[in-house]
Design brief:
60% of the residues lie in helices and 0% in strands. It is built from 9 helices and no strands. The protein starts with a helix and ends with a helix. InterPro entries: ARMET-like, ARMET_C, ARMET_N, SAP_dom_sf.
């Protein structure tokens, strides 16, 4: 009877591990951002968790949109309310894959995996005159352009070249 209990516990542990694994398309912002950040690290920085944290803070200063929100959740920004950078830096120093790091981060803060990238607008096949102002502002923000709404209408209504 004791052996049956051990097998049941092992089976339950295996099922729990499978249930906690990331599904396809889940944590896309986390995985892409961790991979992008890890690619910027040199070999001597990768071995030290404290230097990884310092580099991540530098990385977050120039991040935008969803990557910036990811940095906020981890504590990589100055205005972040909490900080779980150790949950990123230690596994990175061990060369753990990005998806496994994101699984660990999801356990600490589930909203990290709720982030999704916005769909990209195909500028060649879309009629700018029919886009919503929100989408036009997003396009301009992606181009690092700051302009007022009147300028947006002027850009749309200008003659085609």
């Amino acid at each position: 009877m004791y052996k049956l209990g051990v097998f049941q516990l092992l089976f339950l542990a295996a099922i729990t591990q499978v249930a906690l694994a990331l599904r396809d398309g889940e944590c896309e912002v986390c995985i892409k951002t961790v991979e992008k950040f890890a690619a910027t690290l040199s070999d001597d920085v990768k071995s030290n968790p404290k230097s990884i944290e310092a580099e991540f803070r530098k990385f977050c200063k120039v991040s935008k949109n969803k990557e910036n929100r990811f940095c906020y959740y981890l504590g990589g920004l100055e205005e972040s309310a909490t900080g779980i950078l150790g949950e990123l830096s230690k596994p990175l120093s061990w060369s753990m894959p990005a998806d496994k790091i994101c699984e660990k981060l999801k356990k600490k803060d589930a909203q990290i995996c709720d982030l999704r990238f916005d769909k990209q607008i195909d500028l060649k096949n879309v009629d700018l005159k029919k886009l919503k102002v929100r989408d036009l502002k997003k396009i301009l923000n992606d181009w690092d352009e700051n302009c007022k709404l009147a300028e947006v209408y002027r850009l749309i209504n200008r003659p085609s070249m």
